[in-house]
Predict the structure.
Amino acid sequence: MNYTIEDLEKAMLLALDPLRTERGGPAATLGSYGGWFEKNRANSGEAAPAMPAVLIEYLGADYATAGAPHFLRSLRFAVLCASADLRSGESRRREAYDLLERTKKLLNHSDLGLAMAPLEIERESGVDTIGTLAVYRGEYLASFIEDAEQY
């Protein structure tokens, strides 16, 4: 079965839906990452997403042959967890760490309801602390066999 980047991102966002504040979770924003943090550093004036935020970013893909016309497509996604808690730097970090743990529980080893290998977390890391903002990310690998004849 072939999936697009958008298919996988939508499936990840659906799996993360319990984190929305409307569902009783901590995330005021759940969505696709559009480069806001980098733009903010450049003082673009673009409005920030409501915090805390969980944002999906596509990082790229690798391909390996799996017997023509099939190949193994392995896509990497980052789940950015951002906090702007105004109490302190420590509370911002703790809120972001909590989001990292919650996203991991929802995504790691999940096939997202798709015909693919379960997602695998590859690493977690700090992205940045920008003034009153703390951003950390978990990187996930999504793999499936793709059929080149279906294009």
Summary: The chain has a mean pLDDT of 89. The domain at 5-150 is CATH 3.30.2000.10 (STM4215-like). Helices lie at 5-15, 36-41, 89-107. The radius of gyration is 17 Å.
